[in-house]
Each structure stands twice: as C-alpha cells, then as structure tokens.
Amino acid sequence: MATPRERLAELLGTGSTASFSAHLQTPAHFLHLEVADVGRVSLPVRAPQAKKLIAAARPAKFGRGTQTLTDQSVRDTWEITPSQVTLGGPGWQALLEKVLEHVRDELGLPRSRALRAELHSMLVYGKGQFFLPHQDSEKHDAMLGTLVVSLPSAHTGGELVIEQANESRTYRASREELSFVAFYADCRHQVTPVRSGHRLTLTFNLLADAETPTQVTGPVEELATCLSEHFSRPAAERSSHRQLPPPKRLVYLLDHEYTQRGLGWDRLKGADAGRAALLRAAADQAGCQAVLALAEVRETWEAWPVDEDPWNDYDGYDGVEDEEAEGDGATESNYELNDLIDDEITLAWWTAPDGTGGERISLPVPDSEVCASTASRDLTPYESEFEGYMGNYGNTLDRWYRRAAIVLWPREQAFAARAEAGSQWTLDELRSRIDAEDLAGARAAADSIASFWISADVHSELLGPALNAAVGLRSADRAVMLLSPFQVEMLTPDHATQLAAAAQQYGEPWLRSILSGWLPSRHPGAGPEFGTWVEDLPRLGSALRESGVPQAAGMLVAYVWDWLNARLNACTAIADPAQRQPRLALAQPPTATAAPSGGPRRDTPRRDTGRTARIPGRGAGVPAAHPPRRNRNVSAGT
C-alpha cells in the first residue's frame, strides 16, 4: 500500500507536459538588424558580411566559477557586444512577445508569469569554431534561461545540442528563417563545430517577472490530506520496516537544478513551478509551512559495465573489471544500474519562511521524509564513480546530484523543525521573542529543541547570536543548553563582551561549566583550527580581561598550557633527533604565543602543579581550574 508521501509524489507527477526547451521558426523580414561599424545586416547573412561582422567582434569569453576566461580550446567564437547591436523593425517587438508566450507555455511556466528577453551578445561562428558542453551562469537575479535566435545563413554543422536528465535535443538553424530556441539555465548544451559557412546568433537572457497571484487549480484537497496523514502516522524505516515516530518534515525533491541566487518561488522552472503552487496551496489547507531548499543527494547502485555478463558459468560474479570503462573515457552510459544499495540526502541551504534570504545548513534527511515525482536515477548526476568487484561485494556506482526541494512541516512544529539544522533563524527568532517581551514564548521555544540541540551542526558565526539569546532567556539551564553545541575554537575576542554579560547574569560556576563543556576532553592534535585559535589566545585573553571575566582567560590558558606541555613531552620522548626536531619546530609557534608570562624558562615546559596560571601580558596570576574535561551534558543552578 502506498504511503501518503508516495501518493503525494504521484499526484504531483500526473499531467505534467513541461519541456526543458522550446523551438519556433518565423519569417526573417520581421527583424531589422544593425551593427556599429558594419551597418545594416541583410538576412540571410552572406559570407562577405559575416567577415565584416567578425572584424567588428572580439574573441568570446566564458565564465568558470567567479572567473571570466578566454580559452579557444573551450569556446572558439566571435562576440559582438549588445552596445554595438540595434534591433528593430515594424513587427519585431510584437513577434518577440508572441515568441515569449510560446516559450512560456512550452517550458511549462504559469500563464501568470511574464517573460522578458534581454540581449546578451551577438555571436559569429566560422569554420571549425565551437563551444564545448556547459551550463549558462545566471547573469541577472530574474534569469531562468537563455533564448537563442539563429539568423538565417548557409552553413553546415554548428548544431545547438541541449541535454536535460537523460534526454538530448539537437536544433539546426534555417537558411531562410529566424530560428528561436529557448532552454533553462541548468540545461547542459553545446555548439558543435561549424563545418562550412558561418553560424550567426543573437543570445538573450530569459528573465521572469514576479508572478501575478492566481487561483490554483488541481488536486489541492487530496494533497492536503496526504500532508495531514504524513505528519500524523508513524514512519517506517526502509531497511527494517520498524515503526518510528511520525515524520518531522516532508522533503519533496524538484526536477531542475538551482543556485542559491536563483532559488525563489517566482523563479521555479517547468513542472517545478506548477507543483510548488499546488504544494503551497495544500500546505495552507493542512496547516503547514513550506520553504525552498537545496539538497545534496548521493546514491550507491549495484551496477556493471554494459556489454558484459555479470554472471559466469558458476552462478557467481566473474570478478573481471572493465579497465577501459574505468579510465578517463568512462561515462554514465558505460554502466547498467541494477539495485539501489544506499542513498543519503542532506539539506545544505534553505530560505527563510517568508521566502527571502537564506542560510547554509547541514541537515541529513531520512528516507521516510523524502519523496519525488522524478527519481534521481532518471536525472544526470554531476559526478559519478564506479568501483569494480572487490571480492566481498559486487560492482558499485556512486552518483551525486544537486537537487532543489520544497520542505514542509506543521506550523506548530516550525520552530523545532528549523532548529534541528543549527539554524541562524532559530537564534534570531528566540531573540525576537525576547525583545518583544515574550519571555514565556522564548523559553517554550527553547524547551522544544532541548532534546536535540546539543548535537546540532552549528558553526562559528552562530556563537554570537547564541550568546545573545542565552543572556535574554534569563534561565541558567536553558542558557547552558543553547550554548552546548559550540567548541572552544569558535570563541574569538569579538565574543568577549557577550560572554562577560552571560557570566554576570549567571555567575562564575555557570561560566566554568560552559567553558569546560566547550573544551575537548582529550588533548587535540595540531589541527589548523585549534592551532590558529591557540595563536590568537593572547588577544582573546586580553579581551576577556577587559570585559570583566579574567577567570575565563585563566581557565583557557591553563588548559592550553597543559596541552602544550603534553605535546612537547611527547616530542622530546622521541629518541631519534632527526624525527624529534621537526616535531619540536611545529610546536614552537603556539608554544611561544600561549606560554604564561613568568612561566618556566626551559626547553621543555614542566606541567604546572600549582593552582594559578598567568595571563599573557599580565604580572599577577589568576585562579585556574584543573584541566577541564569535556562534558556536553552540563547544567547550572539558577
């Protein structure tokens, strides 16, 4: 029997006719084209005029990450900038509007969304020129795709090949007519080498205006029922089928790829747009909240190279690896997928509840919370890796995807659902409730996350907001809970004032319990984060003293001094000087910066058996704690 999330995915997958590309041809007389220093361009374009256009052009560039490059082994064509081009004609604008309406319908976008075309460049390809497979970068916040207008000319080759998932389409320009091809920005595409003549195109950024609200039609009530049942029924673990508590979230995976910049309710592509509208309407009926997210998906499949029998005459794997298929020429088409062995889905970024902004997260999602109308195996992975038969398991193919998602949860559970990701929004929301003098609401929200916040995947940028919220809660135990996931390496001089405010609010025993919880129970290795933090310890100590918490500085220095002592003792215990000296050299910089002033003056520091540790730059000692032990489950009285 299908689960509610499986029924939901089936409902959303029904009746979708969206395409990833659209094509249309029209008579060329609608367009009047002029180029600076060339003049009026007659259509079809003849070879003499094409050569004049090349003389007015420059080698085309392309983007790679944040760089703009010129590399003729990747892109070999001539580019004319928009400022050099004038488009007109008595029927051009009306024609373009009709083309954009056709494109909108073919790409499966709502009729309430208007498209615009912004000229990006004019391109001229001569014999042998090409553009290797690539994806277009988003050059505008409203950009969702590209429109290519091929000018009529006599040439061979130069086909535009567009790929999406497992489908490929090839478009050839006309000798007599204008040829329009539009496609989404996440589609991989290429221009094959021109074999003769010249290929000329106008390329436009395809922009989508904000959608006009309209009445959503479709199975909204059925989808709302699926959501209500999903969040009220026990979940089932796929591997063991044992029952679990009802799911906290529903993660519906979308079909197209999006960047952080390009992910928004008004910028969804194809079938994603219609499905999102239905899900949001159903969420309102079911009392749920929806946000957009980006997910990293990894799947491990049992697979074997095509044209190879995986079974030998003895009813077992033959154990022969296809070395050629595993080499540089290996492609997805070299392998046949059999059974799914394992998969992992992690939400890496999501928007705020109101659809604005966003934040990076790292939230693993169990299978019982995930559904999709299009399986990942039917899409193109951005990376894959084949591992042949190893003796204890068969051939496997790992595939990695980046997919967007709509994440839903019941409104009454919204705070906890976001908090589990170690969310910046969570801490800001706590502080907002405190500032609004809703202390009871803030404390209730904090209590709702106590069971899992200790293991939240936090990062250093969250420590400041967490300290602010901890002070505002005016509850020592809740403040300990809120600060428990952090580590000492995240503490910087910028946090000194906030930490001092918390210490003044809750007292020195509370402060010691916090610091002992942040410090590792074992002496860490010389990792880059901890080593950098040790080198910056004098600045941190000064900031803590100036903020009124010298005891915190003393405790941290005592711990680091003990760590350095153990590290140097381990180095000097090495008998071979050739091995000992490099180890001592690595330990020297943090030793110099963290050694207590007035401390022992010897090559190897002795463990301090006294009860004081001196703060760098300060003559008098301050009380120091025993070397702290890691304790996540600390608490303090009010």
Which consecutive residue ranges, at least 5 long each, have pLDDT under 50? 310-330, 594-638
Rg, please? 31 Å
Total number of strands: 30
Determine the N-to-C terminus distance: 53 Å
Remind me, CATH topology of the largest domain? Jelly Rolls
| Content-based structural category | alpha+beta
The portion of residues forming beta strands comes to: 25-35%
Side by side, the strands of the main sheet go 1-16-12-19-10-8-4
Kindly provide the name of the CATH class of the largest domain: Mainly Beta
Q: What form results from the Cα inertia axes?
A: globular
Largest beta sheet, briefly?
7 strands, antiparallel
Q: What number of structural domains do the residues give?
A: 4
Q: Architecture of the largest domain, according to CATH?
A: Sandwich
- What percent of the residues sit in helical stretches (DSSP H or I)? 25-40%
Note the total helix count.
Answer: 16
Average pLDDT confidence is 83
InterPro entries: Oxoglu/Fe-dep_dioxygenase_dom, Pro_4_hyd_alph, Pro_4_hyd_alph_FE2OG_OXY
Organism: Streptacidiphilus monticola
Keywords: Dioxygenase, Iron, Metal-binding, Oxidoreductase, Vitamin C
Protein name: 2OG-Fe(II) oxygenase
